[in-house]
Amino acid sequence: MGAEQQISLAALERFCRAAFAAIGADKATADGATRAMLHGTRLGVDSHGVRLLPHYLKALEGGRLNRNPRMKQVGGFGAIEVWDADHAQGAVGTYHGMARAVTLAGQFGLGAVAIRNSSHFGPAGAYALAAAEAGYIGITFCNSDSFVRLHDGASRFHGTNPIAVSVPVAGQQPWLLDMATSAIPYNRVELYRSLGVELPEAVASDVTGRDTRDAHLADMLAPLGGMFGFKGAALAGVAEIFSAVLSGMKLSFDIDPMGGPDFATPRGMGAFVLALKPEAFLDRAAFDAGMTRYLDVLRGSALRENAPDGVSVMAPGIANGKSRRNVAKTA
To answer: Which key words tag this protein in UniProt (predicted)?
Structure first.
């Protein structure tokens, strides 16, 4: 392994955009995919960051992803729209869907958008955060190919099926939850394989369903919750229903594997995004005051006994911007 190097995120962004252009992808694809990957890398979530670039390029080159997608609205009613992403790279359709949801929420108080014929979209939090940065509450669901066993199960059933929620906070970074409903995301297994690092306890199983810490032997993930994994499995079902059933797209166990070998056939994945306008529920000043007080009391709450030195109680998200990175590290 070579010496560690640092690359500015600006240079990394230019490189990603150039790579998409070189393979013939349109500007919308370069913009959306790069924006989503940089969200992951900037926040230190490298499993969903720029390490995904070779995968997306391979899928574009093979034909799984459309290099020049033509998205179109195919359904809707009132504050609801359904969009066909035309087998675009997943971030392209999902960013568009959330932009439409925000526009609808500005008119109706809420906006809900189902996205059809999408693909892997990377960090779910990127799209929820886009709504929060516009002043709205954002919620995102997606399913993915089967890699997670059920509670006490011994075969793959759900995908990692992420759920993300982001809420604007006056004068602060948004509150942001971005979680897989598996014990860890599948991309974390790939990251640990590449780094030669052991997995944590009870997060993955081998082909027989037995727990393993060897990333190379990991055949499936455990649902979130450890011995209470039925909760994680049920949350995965929530994401499955919203993103796949409601969009009319493939269920997790019907989706072709992300890693191939087939990179020519579109995967037919769905996603679902929701935007809520706080002012539709209460005065904006009251909402802002409520969020501020909630977070002030949360962050000032007592630590448990024997908590590690230097630790403070934290809210989900980007703590005053401190989690944002200006450089990426490579080895």
So the answer is: Oxidoreductase
